[in-house]
């Protein structure tokens, strides 16, 4: 099997943030260990990756790293996990670059995930899209859902109705990526890739976006934990 058609077997997960907006959940644990519907976020992620053929995941952590390390050491299913601990905060771009140093095959593409994302979409289709475009990186994109209600009002000021938290015709970075190995060295050693590496690659025409058709939820606040905890059992129940 050639490298261009081989399945993606490795991934990195960023799990080092303090997540102050998720307190009190994160007073005693890192963000990726916050439980949603009685399971840590990272367990959902590792299970999803394993279901699409990922055999090895590198987890980069910092804040409350010992909690995450102990939990991962007790896992018996899913991909094999390597834990790397940041000696100092590196920023998201720096953390991605640092995590990639733990990959076993640095010459192959790999998935990258933010540690606060819950999602289910077909990674095989994501991979096919990425390879068809021929870029250095592909971002998964989620349709933006506003947290505010929308008022339907006409030019005369008459209100016709209300829509609570609708999806809007905009797309946001979903925190799931597929990177070619050549992208790793373009990530900053410290700092944010979204303000450095990504704009540069976009200007060069080497960055693409894959629109997710499936469940996606970022877990940033206490409200997100509650709402995701209600959504996920229903979603998994429908999936059988």
Could you list some keywords that capture this structure?
240 residues, alpha/beta, seven-stranded mixed β-sheet, two-stranded antiparallel ribbon
What does this structure look like?
The chain is α/β, with parallel strands linked by helices and 240 residues long. Helix content is 29%, strand content 30%. It contains seven helices and 13 strands. The protein has helices spanning 41-51, 65-73, 91-100, 123-133, 181-184, 197-203, 222-238; strands at 10-14, 35-36, 39-40, 56-61, 80-85, 110-114, 117-120, 137-145, 149-153, 159-164, 167-179, 207-211, 215-218. The strands form four sheets. It has a seven-stranded mixed sheet with strand order 5-4-1-6-11-8-12. The chain has a two-stranded antiparallel ribbon with strand order 2-3. A two-stranded antiparallel ribbon has the order 7-13. The longest helix has 17 residues, at 222-238. It is globular and about 60 Å long. The relative contact order is 0.18.
What's this, in brief?
This protein is 29% helix and 30% strand. The protein contains 7 helices and 13 strands.
């Amino acid at each position: 099997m050639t490298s261009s058609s081989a399945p993606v077997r490795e991934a990195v997960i960023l799990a080092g943030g303090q997540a102050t907006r998720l307190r009190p959940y994160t007073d005693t644990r890192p963000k990726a260990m916050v439980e949603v519907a009685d399971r840590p976020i990272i367990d959902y992620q590792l299970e999803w990756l394993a279901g699409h053929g990922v055999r090895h995941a590198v987890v980069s952590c910092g804040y409350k790293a010992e909690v995450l390390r102990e939990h991962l050491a007790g896992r018996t299913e899913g991909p094999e996990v390597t834990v790397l601990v940041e000696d100092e905060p590196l920023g998201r771009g720096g953390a991605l670059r640092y995590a990639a140093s733990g990959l076993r095959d640095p010459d192959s593409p790999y998935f990258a995930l933010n540690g606060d994302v819950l999602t289910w979409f077909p990674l095989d289709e994501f991979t096919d899209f990425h390879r068809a475009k021929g870029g250095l990186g592909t971002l998964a994109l989620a349709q933006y859902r506003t947290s505010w209600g929308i008022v339907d009002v006409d030019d005369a000021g008459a209100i016709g109705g209300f829509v609570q938290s609708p999806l809007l015709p905009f797309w946001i970075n979903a925190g799931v990526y597929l990177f070619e190995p050549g992208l790793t060295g373009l990530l900053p050693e410290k700092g944010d890739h979204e303000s450095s590496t990504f704009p540069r690659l976009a200007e060069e025409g080497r960055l693409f976006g894959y629109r997710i058709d499936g469940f996606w939820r970022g877990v940033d606040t206490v409200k997100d934990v509650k709402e995701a905890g209600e959504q996920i059992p229903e979603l998994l129940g429908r999936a059988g």
